[in-house]
Amino acid sequence: MSKSSPRTSQQAGEPARIAELRDLLTRANHAYYVDAAPFMTDMEFDTLLAELGELESRHPELADANSPTARVGGAALEDEFETRTHRVPMKSIDNTYSIEDFRAWYARCADAPAGGGLFDSGPALFADPKVDGLAISLRYEGGELVEALTRGDGEKGDLVTANVRAIRAIPLRLRAPASGAVPAVLEVRGEIFMPICEFERINEERERHGEQLFANARNSCVGTLKNKDPKVVASRRLSFVAHGRGEATGLPDIESHSQFVAYLKELGIPVSPLGRGFATVDAAAAAIEEFAAKRDTLDFAVDGMVVRIDRFDEQQRLGTTAKSPRWAIAYKYPAEQGETVLEKVDWQVGKGGTITPRATMRALRLAGTVVKHATLHNIEEIQRRDLRLGDHVVVEKAGEIIPQVVRAVVEKRTGAERPIEPPAACPACGGAVEREGPKLFCANPSCGARFRERLKWFVGRDQMNIDGLGEEIVDALVDAGLVQRFADVFSLDGPEVERTLSVLRARRNAEKKGTDTDAAEQKALAKVAKEGVGTQVASLLESAADAAKHRGLTRVLAGLGIKHVGASAAKTLARRFQSADELLAATEQDLAALDDFGEVTAKSVAAWLASDEAQRVFRELAEAGVDLSSREPKPVAAGANAFAGRTFVVTGTLTRFGRTEVTEILERAGAKVAGSVSKKTSVLVAGEDAGSKLAKAQELGVETWDEARLSEELAKAGLA
To answer: How far apart, in Å, are the Cα atoms of 269 and each of 72, 186, 189, 260, 298?
Structure first.
């Protein structure tokens, strides 16, 4: 009897290891996002997740859509979000802003007529914080997450299941409760929200790139969840808390909301640990007032408390209006405002050269934090509000993580206040400033501040994807003079990089300890001079940069920060012009003829291509060994096949093709692939569950193919 090879023996145990890792990582997710009691470090989690991914790649027969590896997000969505009808409408809740009105609501509930009165005594209440996020309905069938719909208008919402599956706080499979099996159907209503720490990180990044800041965590959360790329959703640590139910069958005997919350917790669904039951309205009112001082200590935005009648039978007897349930009310905390003095305005330069104003104010404590700065958005907003240096200003922070300058206190003006003037020259480089509508731009393409932000964009994941070149390291390399051009990242000097990073680490540690950063840097330099440095990090950066050299022209164009050229425009350019040389020879007329390139975009891109900067950047990248040829399919003459020169929309589920795959095939055939049906659509490819796009195509008389017809035409074109 022959012995099994070590590899065969190892593989025999891999299915069990896959099951073990899936269970362990699912529990780790729950502990981190739901229980707030993590039992492993981020590094441990990432290491085990990578191991699971490797094992799953060797065992495709064990594929599971609910595996923790699915959390990294699937392919970007090409279509607009599909709209679906809620089986049970998601009604809004009436608001109140005073304790007196809250008590009046309770009195109406207690005294509502129903044959001499609803209740023998005042009904019990349940209250929990009103998280400021995006309302969502999660549908589980047989314990599996099958659908996620936004609230929308309450009757219909957007289908965002792919994005919701990327949120680690939301279980993809329910845990079996002690009472028995999971319910046959359970729609959980709740709130997806962004933790404040994550919101602040994103806004810092947007500020560095010269992008308008999100006003609050809710805006950022909505923008994230509506992103077409689930990978973006996965990269931001959105969270979730449940607060209600929609359609439900197969539940155990549950008589109240408080019991329902306990049941959800058994199923592994996040619920608020701050939810409490109250026997009287007096106790609930006291809790509302007490919580006002505590809400600013939380790591998520809360703008009120939701109070509901606890028992379900009592809720049913109270009923609903056309808009809201009578048995619930949201107590909204009034906006917290403070008065301070506007001392100065700094103008900051972002990636695209956008110059934005940032207010510095005399420090005041507001909503639990010390406020010194606020965004002023743009020069038009400053002029509209008639803000002046030295003004007393009212600042508001009501669920708004970014403080808002509400108005100037005009009656306190002394005459010494000075107008806020837009900069005549770039505050970073002294170059010319241009204005487009309310926005100001630095016109100097060689601006140092602008280059720093463009470089961070260039090396980012969705552009050149040079792993390891995070923002702090980019700043350190630029400050040290090691990177002064895009091409420099492909020829970094190892010892110099390590020396720079040693100083960076020393400064970080000193800042954490509150010690002298200059002294720490000098000590680090002395140690380097004495002991030398290794080259481990530099070697990793070099390997990542070498890999990035071969990503092709599309990624380069998307990364250079060319005005009006994002990922889509970069793809269009690289599809038409197969090399940097071809692109540099393009005329404004050539560009204007491209799909989705209007007159303004064509003129702007043509001007950049004709500039000395464009010639220099492409030359330097080529000298650094960067591949500037296109990876996009060459243009196909219109009429060469059934696809060339026509606009296709793909909807529904295809059995043979993935969405990204079919898009690439259609584009290779010369088609343009759009996300929505319009009069310009030539053909709609409709898979299973085609939905509203099929109806619209039929209404407009658009030619429709099923998957069999698509395969047939691809075979004729030699692309099957």
So the answer is: 20, 12, 11, 11, 20
Can you list the positions of beta strands (E) in 6-158?
Answer: 83-85, 95-96, 125-131, 134-141, 144-150, 156-158
Identify whether the C-beta of residue 677 lies closer than 8 Å to the C-beta of residue 700: yes
Q: Catalytic site residue 130?
A: yes
pLDDT given for residue 359 in this prediction: 92
Identify the weakest region by mean pLDDT among 11-25, 395-409, 437-451, 661-675.
395-409
Q: In the CATH hierarchy, which top-level class contains the domain 647-716?
A: alpha beta
Task: Report whether pLDDT(74) > 50.
Answer: no
Question: Which CATH superfamily hosts domain 337-441?
Answer: Nucleic acid-binding proteins (2.40.50.140)
Cβ contact 308:275 at 8 Å: no
Distance, in Å, from the CA atom of 443 to the CA atom of 360, rounded to the nearest integer, reads 26
What mean pLDDT is reported for the chain? 84
Would you tell me which CATH number, out of the four given (1.10.1740.10, 3.40.50.300, 1.10.150.20, 1.20.272.10), belongs to the domain 448-548? 1.10.150.20
Query: Which of these, 426, 481, 468, lies nearest to 450 by C-alpha position?
Result: 426
- Of 3, 91, 130, 439, catalytic: 130
Structure tokens given for 483: 């990177």
User: Reduced to 3 states, what is the DSSP secondary structure of residue 359?
Assistant: strand
Cα separation, 78 vs 659, in Å, equals: 8
Show the tokens assigned to 193.
């929200």
Determine the average pLDDT of the residues in 233-247: 89
Q: What is the pTM of this model?
A: 0.51
d(C-alpha 167, C-alpha 437), whole Å:
38
